[in-house]
Amino acid sequence: AEKLLEIENLTAGFLTVGGTVKATEHLSISIEKGKTVCLVGESGSGKSVTSLAVMRLIDYNGGAILEGSIKFQGEDLAKKSQDEMIRIRGNKIAMIFQDPMSSLNPVYTIGDQIAESIMLHRKKGKKEARQMAVDMLRLVGIPAPEIRVKQYPHELSGGMCQRVVIAIALACDPSLLIADEPTTALDVTVQAQILDLLRSLQKELGMSILLITHDMGVAAEMADRIAVMYAGIIVEEGSANEIFARPSHPYTEGLLKSVPGLEGARGEELYTIRGNIPGLSQLPEGCRFHPRCPYAKDICREKAPTVMAVTEDHYASCWMYSEEGGAAAWKNESKP
Ligand code: SF4
Ligand code: MG
Q1: For residue range 310-321, what is the model confidence (pLDDT) as tens digits?
Q2: Is 318 in the pocket of ligand 1 (CB under 6 A)?
Q3: Torsion over CA of 324, 26, 96 and 221, rounded to 10 degrees?
Q4: Which strand ranges, in their side-by-side order, compose the sheet holding 308-311?
Q5: Mean predicted confidence (pLDDT) in 99-112
Q6: Binding site membership of 228 for ligand 1 (Cβ less than 6 Å)
Q7: Could you report the per-residue pLDDT of 196-235, keeping only the tens digit for each?
Q8: In this structure, which residues have their CB less than 5 angstroms from ion ligand 2?
Q9: Are the CB atoms for 219 and 246 separated by under 8 Å?
């Protein structure tokens, strides 16, 4: 299938007084047209930095792309000027964030804010844009859109505001929507409604979604493919079916065991992965996960594993799957 976005060997980070801190390293993922890829991992794993790098917003946060390419519709975003990026952002790629209130302007009506986006990106006049704003509100499932269009953000619930933010994002008819924890600030019922909305909009509009979440439950609902990030690198990647049927990296296994109601967690006491994610300027030697890994061996503490194929089209960075790491020995051991 046709790839819309192809990130290859992306390393991005920040220049600090202590030197360069790499927040995401040698990251490769691609998204096909109309599909959803989830980047999952605990906070601090480099998921958001990755999305900021794709949008080149990292440049405004004291960061930079240090290596690699971000091919979007055949063009490398890593090489674009900010002037060119301004035309791509909000036009072909739109982004939504965790807190809808921070994306909305409290002093303008929601109708004005959607209309402004339509005028800017679709080159429509004011009158037509206002009518389209009502249609957009209907599209994102806001009841009585003719009335809502005249209201201010504070007059709407958090869930309704996130729908408005989605309407603004879609006003430019993007090919790619990047959603960074879009439901994390919402309560569970509203969360499910927003995920439903994103899925049905995707079906209707054919856009691709890069969804960033710490929540394996959200990934289970949404993802076609999943990339699990830990301490700045992808540790496992594969189709959502594969990842849930055969979680292969010990970190993914831990994430899945710690989600209530998912396979592996059912009926047992909820699992927590021991320890904390390391700071990016104090990464452990060898495998970055080794201080927290229940299976760690000597080689894990000494040498970083490379990407290994677990099955066709399913990859993990873990010594367990390599000859050099003594895969055979691991197989014969019972897991702790
Ligand atoms: Fe655990 Fe070793 Fe695999 Fe790292 S390489 S995840 S420490 S078993
Ligand atoms: Mg984040």
Answers
A1: 999 999 999 999
A2: yes
A3: -20
A4: 93-96, 176-180, 208-213, 36-40, 225-230, 233-239, 314-316, 308-311
A5: 93
A6: no
A7: 999 999 999 999 999 999 999 999 999 999 999 999 999 9
A8: 48
A9: no
Above 70 in pLDDT, residue 36?
A: yes
Q: 288 CB less than 6 Å from ligand 1? A: no
Task: Please tell me the distance between residue 47's alpha carbon and the centre of ligand 2 in angstroms.
Answer: 6
Quick check: CB of 235 below 6 Å from ligand 1?
A: no
Integer angstrom CA distances of residue 267 from 79, 219, 261, 271, 287: 50, 21, 8, 11, 31
The count of structural domains within the chain is: 1
Instruction: Provide the residue type at 48 as one letter.
Output: S
Give the number of other Cβ atoms within 10 Å of residue 234's Cβ: 26
- Say yes or no to pLDDT of 263 above 70: no
CA–CA distance, 133 with 142 (Å, rounded to integer): 11
Domain with 220 in it: 3-92+174-332
Residue located via tokens 């099955």: 311
The verdict on residue 87 lying in a domain is yes
CATH number at 57 reads 3.40.50.300
In the chain, the amino acid numbered 76 is: D
pTM greater than 0.90:
yes
Residue 274 domain-assigned (yes or no):
yes
Question: How would residue 264 be classed by pLDDT, with cut points 50, 70 and 90?
Answer: low
The CA distance from 215 to 333, in Å, is: 30
Average pLDDT, the chain: 91
Q: Is 305 close to ligand 1, i.e. is its CB under 6 Å away?
A: yes
Q: Give the Å distances, CA to CA, from 95 to 165, 179, 195, 200, 335.
A: 9, 6, 15, 18, 41
Q: How far apart are CA 44 and CA 277, in angstroms?
A: 7
* Atom nearest to 295 CA in ligand 1: 8
Joined tokens for residue 281: 């300027």
Domain-located, residue 108:
no
Specify if 27 maps to a domain: yes
User: Do 117 and 168 contact (CB within 8 A), yes or no?
Assistant: yes
3-state DSSP call for residue 80? coil
